[in-house]
């Protein structure tokens, strides 16, 4: 056992199945404490969208840290103001941002928003999807459609109903006079990389509008250009008639937003932007100058290097390279968009496969027990995709 694993065993709560001790990263490569190099297609669970040690990120963090790191929510700061403007513009130009520090916190914000919006009329129920994942807070586990997240923490926060994903009729049937919102992921991430269909998205928007119900989207994993468009629903709805102007009422984000620096955010549409006022909701750290500076670097890089187009093309290459492997080791499907690709197996072998790929020099991440996720940085190159495919091929053939 290394000194680090020894320290973890003694002093860190054992809530995750940790494997390697990672010490350094550069670009899409990462090194462990034994000096072994890995191609990183796990990206710190869809977070490191610019890879590691991205020079402009390193510079901006150092410069911002030297100027001011934290102010608290009692004061304005310029990096957060600029970031909010950029996010709102990406979301159509109206509405407002609430900054948080994680995906779960961003979801807490939109769940509280919905509760508060429905309070005067006695509406508090929120419909979510089976197999969804919305974080580990009490709101997050209650919202998530997976029993294993709730087990032992009951009683749950009341008011959540779970229905099958991509099933519009099931949502309609679950609506009651107390329903205030429907919450879905654009692509279910932890649930196994399952994209929403265009019909589901458009149907949900029409249904919720007609019934005066909010549509909330959890874009923590699938958002922020991971699919090759700013939001996964924009990518999914490309070329679909009637999709122009599709907008949820609120959206949660985190992960790629900060490129590795912890920051999350909730976007709230103009219609609901006054529901949470002073004293109703807040956080000490949200939108710190340092976190916001990191998020601004991510947006700069995506814009100047056209990383949306890059990850779309690299994702297509990855899908095309993985598809011929269907049938190997019980692999039954490959699915996803851009830098959010899942390889599904018949059996519960995801963690074994992740270990196999890791031993062969490629980091990937399990999604549940049957799916392996590929979450490369948005600036991954074509030759790195080819290299990753070679490692996967080699592991299957071994
Ligand atoms: C869709 C989705 N929502 C929420 C979360 C929770 O985010 P965090 O771990 O930053 O709290 C995750 C994390 O994997 C996620 O994938």
Which value, in Å, is the CA radius of gyration? 21 Å
What's the helix count? 14
- Provide the residue-averaged pLDDT: 97
* CATH class division of the largest domain: Alpha Beta
Per CATH, the superfamily of the largest domain is Type I PLP-dependent aspartate aminotransferase-like (Major domain)
Number of strands: 17
Q: How would you classify the quaternary structure?
A: single chain
Q: What ligands does this structure carry?
A: pyridoxal-5'-phosphate
Strand order of the largest sheet: 4-12-11-10-7-5-6
Largest beta-sheet characterization: 7 strands, mixed
Q: How big a fraction of the residues is strand?
A: 15-25%
What's the quick description here?
The chain is α/β, with parallel strands linked by helices. The chain has 14 helices and 17 strands. The protein folds into two domains: 3-54 and 306-397, Alpha-Beta Complex (Aspartate Aminotransferase, domain 1); 57-304, Aspartate Aminotransferase, domain 2.
Molecular structure report:
The protein is α/β, with parallel strands linked by helices. Helices cover 37% and strands 19% of the residues. It contains 14 helices and 17 strands. It has helices at 3-11, 43-46, 55-67, 78-90, 103-119, 138-143, 147-150, 168-174, 198-210, 232-236, 289-304, 307-322, 350-359, 382-397, and strands at 22-26, 29-32, 37-40, 96-100, 125-129, 160-163, 179-185, 187-188, 194-195, 214-218, 250-253, 264-268, 331-337, 340-345, 362-363, 365-367, 371-374. The strands form 4 sheets. A 7-stranded mixed sheet has the order 4-12-11-10-7-5-6, sandwiched between helices. α3 (55-67) runs antiparallel to α11 (289-304), α4 (78-90) packs across α11 (289-304) and α12 runs parallel beside α14 (382-397). It is globular, with a radius of gyration of 21 Å. The mean pLDDT is 97. Pyridoxal-5'-phosphate binds at residues 45, 102-104, 107, 133-135, 185, 189-190, 218, 220-221, 254.
